[in-house]
Amino acid sequence: xxxxxxxxxSRFRWVIxxxxxxxxxxxxxxxxVLSYLEKTLEGVIGWNSEQYSHMxxxxxxxxxxxxxxxxxxxxRLGTRRGFAIxxxxxxxxxMAPGAAYSVATFTFAMFLLxxxxxxxxxxxxxxxxxxxxxxxxxxxxxxFNTGASVGALAxxxxxxxxxxxxxxxxxxxxxxxxxxVWLAAWLLLYDTPKNHARASQTELEHIQSDPxxxxxxxxxxxLLPVKETWVFALAKFLTDPVWWFYLFWLPRYLxxxxxxxxxxxxxxxxxxYAASMIGGVAGGWLSSxxxxxGWSHNAARKTAMLVCALCVVPVLYAPFAGNLWVVTALxxxxxxxxxxxxxxxxxxxxDMFPRVAVASVxxxxxxxxxxxxxxxxxxxGKIVAVTHSYLPLFAICSAVYVLAMAIVQxxxxxxxxxxxxx
Length: 422
What we know:
Layout: H1 13-46, H2 49-77, H3 79-95, H4 103-117, H5 120-131, H6 134-189, H7 201-207, H8 220-223, H9 227-258, H10 266-292, H11 297-312, H12 318-321, H13 324-352, H14 355-387, H15 391-411
């Protein structure tokens, strides 16, 4: 389609946001299969809580390693090619656990999956920066980031049936194959706004309504000394491990604490991830609404983040509750708040940095979050094995968001744009 044939009006940026949402759904579905089948496979393969923590730590460590290069590669190759290569790699890796037969082979398979999935968030954030003006980015980020909750929610819905139909090995293969369907849609539908046949001139002007930014590449050597990079990275380091904890340990915690089987465990897990899905959209919506009403980006982002941080605190009571649905309610609120927090934290990168540097900054921050995740996964396995208690873990989960909020405010009181050398 030629430029002259472009539509008079369009909102195609939301179609692009939908693609990002489904990519994130697939990523979290792929990584969630092991956590949901963990107690079943514990009896089949034979592992304990510490060995399981080594598998989840391997995934998270690989994620950190992948993020060292994922953001920079996406910036250099461009979003279309970079994202296509990433989902091709992680879809193959997601099938690999279906061929695993020991603790070592499961650990290796999860390591490969972590390498492949590392590009998802840097590519998504870069795409949002390309297709949305700053005033809409938190909402768009909240929508695609909700895919994490939807993907995790889909696990207890579909995995029991896939296991019945295809065995547990087939469940890994079936979920991993979804990435190839997404890849076809991405190659068919994606291009930059300027070159896209379905983006109208009016929509293009809306996307480009922010001040003009440099297009020169920004190497990591210019990003690492800048304090704004570390505002984002420290927020991720402190709070990302909490999401990894829920993702990999919540099904096990509920099964052990309330003596549930794999089918009984479905509804509480579904409720928790449904709540997190709502929280992700609500957190992005809250700051976007405040900006539309005249609030500064600084005040809107931080107010939304503070609300989310305070909503996490009550999860400290979960180990004392003694009732499945009280625990589910507390964890659901905390997970919803995490996703609302995450939508705004991701947007900090595009608030403080030019589009050309966003994927690299998200890669650095994601790497720090994954490093924190590795440490927390290993600590979780050791704490559960030694104390047979999850109380210290929930105590950490309840406190780190307030700490992270304080660090963000102290290091960047005005959320000013980073001063980069080009």
